[in-house]
Structure formats: structure tokens, C-alpha cells
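>> received
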Amino acid sequence: MEEAKAAGMLVVSSSIDESHGLFFHGMGRSPLSDPEEFESYGPGYWWVDSFFEGWDTTGWLMIPMDSRTTAAPDGADAYVFYRFGGLSWAIPYVAGVYALAAQVDPTITPDRFWSLALDIGRMIELERGGVTKVFGPIVDPVALVDALRSE
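>> returned
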């Protein structure tokens, strides 16, 4: 980890807060909602109650987690849908967005990447039981790449 950080790499793990001082959390969505629509998302299934009870996620980047279709473990031509995931399901997504950013700007640093992702991320409002809360920033890979290209 220390060697990778010294080389300017972002090491993405569930303890990225300890290794880099960065924070992210996994989002959920209804299985029938459009994954391309930011308004389809909200806190992941296992932490939605905490969010509406006041969990402060200021400065956290929100990453897709729940409601995923993936290759199945039982065959090359099989797929499976998982309604609920865990934080580890968001880790490859973060790594993939960082890899895209590094392709556009090979000199990008982890801190610059994270700052830009937070700044460009989408904010939405969520309502539950009469409580309305702002949720986000939701990672926006297209806007992130576009911003890097226009620099």
C-alpha cells in the first residue's frame, strides 16, 4: 500500500478512509428503476435507515452498489441478479472510474481525482416519512471524463 501511494496510485479498498482519508458509500436502487437515472438511487439497503436517522455523509462520494446483474458463478453463459450488495461491490466501480480518469489524464493524482468526483457529482433530494434530505454527491463518470478532457 505504501509503495503504491508513494508512486501516486489510488489504492481502492473498503478502508480507503484509513489509507487515503477518502470516503465513499454504496447506493441502492429499486430493481425496476432505470440505472442511468440519478434519481433512481438512494442509500444502500443496509444503511438507508441510518441515513434518514441523521447519518452525516457530507464529503462522501456515492457509488452504485445494490441491484446488480453479473456473471453467474455456475457457468460461462449464465447471469444472476443480486438485489442487495455490500460495500465491496462498490470498490471495483471506484477503481474503474479512477482508471478512466487516468486514461484521460495520466498525471491525475488520487486527491485531484477525488476532489473532482465530489465537485462534479450529482446531488438529489430524497423523501421518506415526511423527511427530505439531500443525497450525494453521486459519482458521474461521464461528467468527470468530460471535465478532464476540457482542461
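>> The mean pLDDT is 94.
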